[in-house]
Amino acid sequence: MKKTMKKIASAFVAAVLATVTLTACGSGNSATGTAAADGKKTLKVAMECSYAPYNWTQPTDANGAVPISGSSDFAYGYDVMIAKKVADKLGYELEIVKLDWDSLVPAVQSGTVDCVIAGQSITSDRLQSVDFTDPYYYATIVTLVKAGSKYENAKSVADLAGAVSTSQINTIWYDSCLPQIPDGEIQPAHESVPAMLVALNSGRIDLVVTDKPTGQASLIAYPEFRLLDFTGTEGGFQVSDEDINIGISLKKGNTELKDAINGVLSEMNETDFDKMMEDAIAVQPLSN
Fold first, then answer.
1. CA–CA distance, 288 with 221 (Å, rounded to integer)
2. For strand 115-121 and strand 41-47, is the pairing parallel, antiparallel, or unpaired?
3. Using one digit for the tens of pLDDT, what is the confidence trace for 97-149?
4. Paired residues of 131 in beta bridges
5. How far apart are CA 277 and CA 271, in angstroms?
6. For the whole model, what pTM was predicted?
7. Residue 12's pLDDT is what?
8. Distances (CA, A) of 130 to 33, 114, 121, 163, 285
9. Cβ neighbours of residue 39 under 8 Å, at least 6 residues apart?
10. Angle 6-221-278 (CA atoms, 0-180°, nearest 5)?
11. pLDDT in tens, 55-102
């Protein structure tokens, strides 16, 4: 997952509106959202908008997509579904801010956005910089290869020995999982999921490691890919709960918003999360 997690073609840094969040203001509720001129609060949520099925960019508001701040495009996906549910329950307007992966944590730290919902794993390293809510998804690690690859029938990480591999930069996939492949040749990391999938499709590498939702979504755009899942076997990738539990990140000390979001998440269970993810995968655009 994104380091962990995070992800498709080149990521673009969207223009961030020059509004001041309440966390930087001296008045009002400092833990919850951005104050608009009319007094109504807006929850500013950052994501890549290029990490299907978690989040992606599309040209219309089909399926309930939300406008991307400063853009004529719209964002949708699992993360947007969660963001909409949180904003609705808390009574906020929702604003989606599109940022590249490495800009997400700094945006939260600076107060430019209220939170990040972008497939981020709740890692100890990341917890040094931001706070996290309870998990809003529980992912597993998978491997993608092309049909006909000598690794197509691999049953364990050991069976991937010698493979040329890559994944997305600053993710558990790249930093923790790829080094577990015996005698593997690790290529430079890619900035986005789409970029790493293009590398696999081109034949420049033998495999990529990612999370299961991303892997399942990639099969729609690349039906010639094969998904290998060693989860639950002795030959699987060795990962911890912090590697695969996905949470919403907030500025350190923003306990009021954290507690409010946790209250919303507590009304859902793992089955609900899985069903929402299935719905996201079903409507994702092939280009993402």
1. 8
2. parallel
3. 999 998 999 999 999 999 999 999 898 889 999 999 999 999 899 999 999 99
4. 250
5. 10
6. 0.76
7. 30
8. 16, 11, 12, 35, 31
9. none
10. 70
11. 999 999 999 999 999 999 999 999 999 999 999 999 999 999 999 998
Tokens of 166: 């890559």
Q: 34 and 22 in contact (C-beta within 8 Å)?
A: yes
Q: Which two tokens stand for residue 94?
A: 């929702």
Query: Crossing angle, helix 270-283 and helix 212-221, to 10 degrees?
Result: 20
By C-alpha distance, which of 237, 262, 245 is closest to 5?
Answer: 245
Contact 225, 214 (CB under 8 A): no
DSSP 85-113: HHHHHHT-EEEEEE--GGGHHHHHHHTSS
Dihedral sign, CA of 276, 190, 195, 223? negative
- For 164, what's the count of Cα atoms within 13 Å in the CB-facing half-sphere? 12
| 187: Cα separation from own chain's centroid | 22
279 neighbors 76 (Cβ within 8 angstroms): no
CB 126 within 8 A of CB 120: yes
Would you state the pLDDT for residue 171?
87
CA contacts within 13 A on the Cβ side of 212: 15
Interacting residues of 216 by C-beta distance below 8 A, sequence separation 6+: 53, 227, 281
**What is the C-alpha radius of gyration for the chain, rounded to an integer number of angstroms?**
19
Looking at residue 53, what DSSP letter applies?
Answer: T
* CB-CB contact of 60 with 74 (8 Å): yes
- pLDDT of residue 28 exceeding 70: no
Please, are residues 126 and 43 in contact by the beta-carbon 8 Å criterion? no
Kind and range of the H or E element at 146? strand 141-146
Q: Are 54 and 36 in contact (CB under 8 A)?
A: no
Q: What single letter denotes the amino acid at residue 287?
A: S
pLDDT at 32: 53
